[in-house]
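Field reference: sequence -> structure
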Amino acid sequence: IYLMNGDYTLADMNDRVRHPINKSDFTKYTTITSAQGHSPRIIEGKSGVQISFLKFKDITFDLTDLVCPCEQSDSIFVVYKDVDHFWFDNVNLSGPEADNSYPPNLIRGISFNENTEYTLIENSYFSNLYNTIMYSNDESPNAWDIARNNELEKGRNDIFVLHSDIPDKINNVLITTTDVHDKKPLNLYMKSQ
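Structure field:
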């Protein structure tokens, strides 16, 4: 899917493609990318994405015009459960410039919760986000979550959040070659109950 110049939203994404039992019809990656010579912006995120096998390439998620206070429901890309296979390549995810005191900026960048099978975030740039990348690991021993060659700047809280509700289990997460700037202290939050 080629996007031309303009502003786009993911807000109604789960109503556009729907399987009768609320599972994606996609079984191969569907790529959403910029048309040659164009610079589209996605200006509204989606909390509760319900479509699997999505690849975003050369796209800007630009929430810099959002006026805070900003809640987690304003987050850029949040997957709750039962959807899998996401790939982000050379994307720019930026939240509004706001300090964490007031007005608060609680926007997450990319957040995966439960039952994601395979996620890859690579060659991407994140700035002004509360939690940049969040992985809530699931019960699937075959799941893989990979973040590589990314740049993270002006993180407001935890840079990476790794969380599991299964005791002593955070499986198959690889974070490599990631540059972090303007974040003191550097936070990596890991929790396994």
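Note: Residues 62 and 70 are 14 Å apart (CA to CA).
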